[in-house]
C-alpha cells in the first residue's frame, strides 16, 4: 500500500474524465472561457500527472469570441477505442455539443463534429457489440432535467437512434455528468447531482440494457461531502471510473478546498482520486464509504517516482513557444504575443484593451496552492503616456487585482488597482524613478494577496487585497473557475524577462 496526496491535479481543473491505454492513464478537465481548451494530463500511477497537450488549440476548434464568464467549454469526456482517442464536450457559448478525435494523443486533434442534441456533459460508451452510445443531459416536455441516451457515430457526430430519457437521478437537483460502463452483464450509469457546490454528489444506477430501466444503488450517493462540513475538501462529485491493469478500480472526481474557517474558495474546483471496491451485491464503494481525504492509502498501479511534488514553476522565455501551463482569456490576439521580438523575453503588445475586457492582452497560470509567491522582471524601453504593464491575480474580467507601472504627464508610477463587482479602484499610486526595469511580486495568502515591487535593494510592499475578493462564492454571477496569476499589458509594448512561482506555505 502507498500513501498519496489529494488533490492529484491542483488549481482550476474541474470535471475530470479519465481513460487508460495499456499502462498509461490520460485525464482531461474543463476550461470554460480559457484558451487553449481541455488540457490533457498523463500518468503512469494515477497520482503524478504531467500536462502533455490540449485537445482544442485552434480558433477553428474553439470559438470563445462571445463567451461570458464561466461559459465556454463544459465537462469533457475522454475515451479510447480501437486505436483512436475521442473527446466529447460542450461549448455552451457556441454551437453546443461536439466530438473530436486523434490517433496521436500528443498531436493535433480533428475539427469538431457537431451533434444534434441540446444539453451539456456529453459522454461516450463503446459497447462490446460495436455500438457506441451517447449520454448527456436533456429536458423532458415538463422542463425536468434528465439523462438521455442514443446511438452515435463518434467520428461524424451523427445521431443513429432516437434519444431516450433513462434517468432523472436519485432525487438531487441537476442530474448531469453521465458516464456509462459495462461490468458483469450490467450497464452502470454514474451521475453528478446536487449542483457543483456544497450539495454536490455522485450517484450510480444499473440496468441490463443501456436504455434501462435503471435501478438506483441503495447507498446513493456513493460519493459526497455534503454532510461532512468538517472536511478540508468540499463539493465532491462529478466522478469518472477507470480500471487499472491489475483489475483495480478508481474514481477521479472534482472537489474544492475552502479557505480555512470560511465557506469560500479561490483555487477553483480541482481533481481528486479515490480507490473503488465493489460490494457483494455489485455496487461500488468509493474511498472511505463515500468520503475522500487529503491523504489516502491504496495500491497504486505503478510506484511513485519518489520526487517531491511541487507547484513551483519558472519560465525564462527562452523557448520558441510558450510553456503549456500558460493560458489566455478567450481566443488570443496572437499578434500581441511574441517570444522572438527580443530573445529571452516575452513581448506583450497591447492596444487599449484592459483586464476588464473580453480579450485582454494577458497570459496566466493557475494558482495551485493558497500560499505562493509569483515574481517577474518587467522591461519597458519607453513608457508611453497611459501605458500599463505588470502582474495580476485574475479570477475573471469583473474580479482581479493588479500591480503595474504607468506614466502620467511625465511621471512614472507603480500602481495597485482592484476590480471587484462593478467597482474599480486604484488602491495605491506610488511615484517612482523608472529606469526601464522593475521587478514585481504577488504573494498570495489565505486572507490577503500582497503586492510588492523592487528596483534595487529590498522588496517594497505596495499594498494588499483580500483573498475573498477573488473567491467563487462572492461573484455577482454564477461562476466555476479559479484564480490565475499572470502578466498583462495595455496601451503599449512591454517585455518580461522571466516569470517564477514558488510555494511558500
Q: Please, could you describe this protein's structure?
A:
With 505 residues, the chain is mainly beta. The protein folds into two domains: 2-298, Tachylectin-2, Chain A (5 Propeller), CATH 2.115.10.20; 313-503, Jelly Rolls. 0% of the residues lie in helices and 49% in strands. It contains no helices and 39 strands. The chain has strands spanning 2-5, 17-21, 24-28, 34-35, 37-43, 50-56, 73-81, 84-91, 96-102, 113-114, 123-126, 132-139, 145-151, 164-167, 176-183, 186-193, 201-207, 215-216, 223-224, 234-243, 249-256, 270-278, 284-286, 295-298, 313-315, 328-329, 337-338, 346-350, 361-366, 372-379, 388-396, 399-408, 411-420, 423-432, 437-443, 448-454, 460-466, 484-490, 492-503. It is globular, with a radius of gyration of 23 Å.
What keywords describe this structure?
Jelly Rolls; 2 domains; globular; eight-stranded antiparallel sheet; mainly beta; six-stranded antiparallel sheet; 505 residues; Tachylectin-2, Chain A
Write the layout of secondary structure elements.
Blueprint: E1 2-5, E2 17-21, E3 24-28, E4 34-35, E5 37-43, E6 50-56, E7 73-81, E8 84-91, E9 96-102, E10 113-114, E11 123-126, E12 132-139, E13 145-151, E14 164-167, E15 176-183, E16 186-193, E17 201-207, E18 215-216, E19 223-224, E20 234-243, E21 249-256, E22 270-278, E23 284-286, E24 295-298, E25 313-315, E26 328-329, E27 337-338, E28 346-350, E29 361-366, E30 372-379, E31 388-396, E32 399-408, E33 411-420, E34 423-432, E35 437-443, E36 448-454, E37 460-466, E38 484-490, E39 492-503
Antiparallel strand pairs: 1-24, 2-3, 3-5, 4-26, 5-6, 7-8, 8-9, 9-10, 11-12, 12-13, 13-14, 15-16, 16-17, 17-18, 17-19, 20-21, 21-22, 22-23, 25-39, 27-28, 28-39, 29-38, 30-35, 30-39, 31-32, 31-38, 32-33, 33-34, 35-36, 36-37
